[in-house]
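Response to reviewer comment R2.3. The reviewers asked that we include at least one raw input/output pair. We reproduce the pair for Glutathione-dependent peroxiredoxin here without editing.
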Amino acid sequence: MIKVGDTLPDARLFEFVEVAGEGCAVGPNGFSARERTAGKRVVIFGLPGAFTPTCSAKHAPGYVEAAERLNAAGIDEIWCVSVNDAFVMNAWGRDLQTSGKVKMIADGAARFTQALGLEQDLSERGMGIRSQRYAMVVDDGVVKTLNVEAPGKFEVSDAESILATLR
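Raw output as returned:
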């Protein structure tokens, strides 16, 4: 499992872009996690799945609500990463009104999650390979804080816990 002091894996993630821009077409756009965090402070939180109960009611909304305070504490971007495709992550982001606050990042094949060593097998529950629930602060591609939840818990990966580490 990744730990504090490690560099993020050079895995490819995807973000759905609604408006074409320089180098970004409308639709899913792939990027290197390591390259995208270069020179930035990023909070990355991972969760088991889009539209799931705790993820939709508490985890992601907490980061949307705390986005301004995280930015004021020196965070450049906030990523919500889930083992879902970019279309699902985009729809979930619209539902949660994350625009301009939290980037909804797709790890559809779980490559990033597995490279972190933070996968879990939820096949018996009909979900397949998914992410454990976690949050990290990454500074210039290096993990500075890593909070991984115990199975079935939601106590250390919330936005308030990450804000406390930034004070």
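Residues 53-72 form the longest helix (20 residues). The mean pLDDT is 95. Further pairs are available on request from the corresponding author.
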